[in-house]
Design a protein that fits this description.
Length: 124
């Protein structure tokens, strides 16, 4: 499944694996939310509540599409967060792994806290 994430200064696409969480998110698309930032991570509420999956991780690669079960939010890290050690992407808590951003995840640096964010399915 491919999704498009748009905000006032840009957009990107991401490819999601088939997981229970990505399927739950697919059910609510398109969705509109408000961006928050935490270090070099963008996250936003989805209105979807799912349990933490086996294999959830706290330290991920830049460009990972993750789901923060504690906040019902998509988490999109592109660099260090306030709790990272060195250059790692350390999320607030273990998150369900959904897929990868296509292209350069640093595009997310143009997202500002409070920006409207839209997530929609890319029709293939």
């Amino acid at each position: 499944m491919q999704i498009r994430i748009s905000w006032p200064a840009g957009h990107l696409t991401a490819t999601l694996d088939e997981t229970p969480t990505s399927q739950a998110i697919g059910q609510v698309l398109p969705l509109v939310s408000t961006a928050s930032t935490w270090g070099e991570e963008v996250y936003f509420d989805t209105g979807v509540s799912v349990p933490r999956e086996p294999g959830a991780q706290q330290v991920v690669e830049p460009g990972t599409v993750a789901f923060w079960t504690d906040g019902d939010a998509l988490a999109l890290p592109y660099g260090p967060t306030p709790i990272s050690r060195g250059d790692e992407c350390r999320l607030a808590s273990p998150c369900n792994l959904l897929g990868r951003i296509d292209g350069d995840p640093r595009t997310l640096a143009t997202v500002r806290a409070g920006d409207p964010v839209r997530v929609e399915l890319v029709e293939g």
